Amino acid sequence: MKISVSKIIELILRSGDIDARFRDASAMYKGAAAHRKLQGEAGENYKKEVALKLDIEIEGIPVTLQGRADGIITTQKGFTIDEIKSTAMPLDVLFQQHAQHLGQAKCYAYMYIQTLQAPPQAVTIQLTYFQLESEAVKRHSWDFTVEEIEAFFTDLLRKYGAWLKLEHDWKQTRDASIGTARFPFPAFRKGQREFAAAAYRTIIARKKLYAAAPTGIGKTLSALFPAIKAMGEEACEKIFYLTAKTITRTVAQDAAALMAEKGLRIKVLSLRAKDKLCPHSMRNCSPDYCQNANGHYDRVNDALWDVLNNEDIITPAVITQYAQKHQVCPHEYALDAALYSDVIIGDYNHVFDPGAYLRRFFNTNEKREYVFLIDEAHNLADRVRDMYSANIQRSTLRRAAKQLRGRDAYTAALRKAFKQADNYLKDLIAEDESSRAVKEADAVLNAFIILLHIAMGEWLNINKNNAPEYFGEMLDLYFTLDTYMLTAELYDDHFTTLAEINGKDITMTQFCVDPAALITQGLTRGIASVLFSATLTPLPYYREILGGSIDDPVISLPSPFDPAKLTITVHHQVSAKYAHRANSYAPIADIIYHAVNAKQGNYLVFFPSYAYLNEVYLRFYEKYPHISTLVQQSNMTEDDREDFLDQFAPDPTEALVGFTVLGGIFSEGIDLTGNRLIGAIIISVGIPMVNLRQEQIRAFYNQKNGAGYDYAYTFPGMNKVLQAAGRVIRTETDEGTLHLIDTRFKTAQYRALFPTFWRV
Q: Which pTM value belongs to this model?
């Protein structure tokens, strides 16, 4: 087992507050430069970046301890360990953390002593603190005997040993239970064993699998159970179950709980967003505002020990409960607990988002053996595309600039930076008043954004303790600029630059046209991945846009349900094309009525847009006012969504028709089983709206493989149709009807995309 010195220090010697007030994002880069500067000035006797390694036993467990000393200075009597720390804060504030810095250097001293033939007469620890703005340097030094260094090191490992033994003993308990674990149901469903076997083989072989697994197979267990079995055979270290929706994360959590009920011992943690875990209505992670942040690190180890010794399935509710008990920040607490968990259930952004991925797992020097199970994978490409696209809007910059007050040098410099960026954007509008796309990055704009980012960082740092009322808006803009700069660093031929003009306003977007390479990069953070969805059709298309290659295996499984239980009718006499929609409103209203009137019950109708929905709804309501209806609104909250779904009673006494939109909150991830839903009516083939962005996707894939229209419009649109259609049959006993309305559903192009189990 390889363990870094910093990991031990950060666990055992941490103390104090969480303080998430503004930090200059460039401090890390400036800090690296400061290290190089100080090391370069240190002289000939200064050995820099000395790698250290020590093989020892902790609680009888063999461990390789690793670290890297910033500098070692050899003297006639002994040596000095130099530990360099840089900060944008005052140096005396940094000194408040000196116990950790000193402890880290003491560990390096002990490890270095073990490399010497004879123990030295003197050991000096030097902490070198560098202030990034003023470039002031302050050094603190302590002299220790070899015996004192050894005593500190022994005591530190004794304290850490309890945590290491906890991990070691848990792994033995876990693996023993995995070895005897059986599938939690008496038998596999149709297609379930095949999927589980393919997932297991993929993990063992350290590959990627793309699986179309229709509703009813039990895809969550089909992926999770074999991954856990592989973990018990030491084929992987942790499992990340990733999805786009909270409801799907709950399903994975419930599957783990089911296996636990059958005797499996495994630690499963569900991560939630910071805003949803925070107990405060306004999130302010500073010790002055939040009592949990104040002294969090003094209490968090006790909280962590408590939950790890008492809970296996660690839900957000469990995290909240223990966080309240120990008065710690629930978000930071959950992230700490994740380090000791076997299965981590979370959002795609925990692995793929360049600004939010879990650095404590993936930014380490150690190669870790993680497996990614990616549910609802048809959503991943668009999500990653959004994560890596960034925009700057002229009106946002102008609004922020107008709020600036003060005559100090920092405010003046920021005003100047705002003015430079605004003038450039103004010239872009004057140059061409129409929206356009350019393949190259705008290097001039990027330079102005960097200057603005620097000036804003300095202004925020000066004003953070006496923040004006508009400080929060400035901080949000700073992070927007930060994202824009990060995207600029990644910009290559998979991106394009969009200039979208609206009057005197312009939005400049670095748009990720093809996310495949970035998804591949994210997947390399693990050793194996299983990407699956009920609607991963056509598989070659999804494999390509989800970072796969022709060598990566795919599997398409049959539906476990009796196809005769879904009656499908195609209404190909009505065109739902944009140009024909005005003539379709009344005919579609009639089709909806006749479908509903054929059998009393609950129905969902799916439209390609709210405008289309509203036009048909008006005709339907006027002509058939006796039919109960519900209408999806564009700004519905989670409570509104639940209220909407609660109207779909299991034993309806009258017909109920819900008017909704394709690709919206009711076309994916909801389960209205039995008589709660007996029919779906889908209008149009769901193609995305033609706009500058979709046209860039079309142009990119036209050039790449000649299938631009399909990649930009046909396949994404049909996926929405398949997702909506999948709401009808959710269990083996469900029966229902599906109505497809559009002339295009009759064409061979779309018929080829119908599932094989559809009887049309």
A: 0.93
